[in-house]
Write a structure and sequence with these properties.
This protein has helices at about 10-35, 40-60, 65-70, 75-80. By secondary structure, it is mainly alpha-helical. The longest helix has 28 residues, at about 10-35. It is elongated.
């Protein structure tokens, strides 16, 4: 796994993906609770998909410092895809 000591730039990018996911999730929750009483399913899906993309890039890029730093279009597609090596729990 990328660490701050092994690759500070990739570590910062990894943390940024998690922060972005958190910010978007917080904004969605605020919108749903305070902003609009009616949630449009298409908008909800787009926002959830955006949050998943950030989380997926964090998970899929956790061991790939070069991919986190400057991914090609193909690498970005792989990084953004839902993980195949992560079992949902809870």
């Amino acid at each position: 796994m990328i660490t701050q000591d092994s690759d500070p730039v990739a570590w910062t990018l990894l943390i940024d993906e998690l922060r972005d996911a958190s910010e978007h999730l917080s904004a969605l929750i605020t919108q749903m609770v305070k902003g609009r009483p009616i949630v449009i399913e298409e908008d909800f899906g787009v926002q959830i998909g955006h949050i998943f993309a950030h989380l997926n890039r964090a998970w899929n890029g956790r061991n790939d410092p070069q991919g986190m730093k400057n991914p090609t279009d193909e690498q970005r597609s792989v990084l953004t895809s839902f993980p195949i090596d992560l079992e949902p729990c809870g």
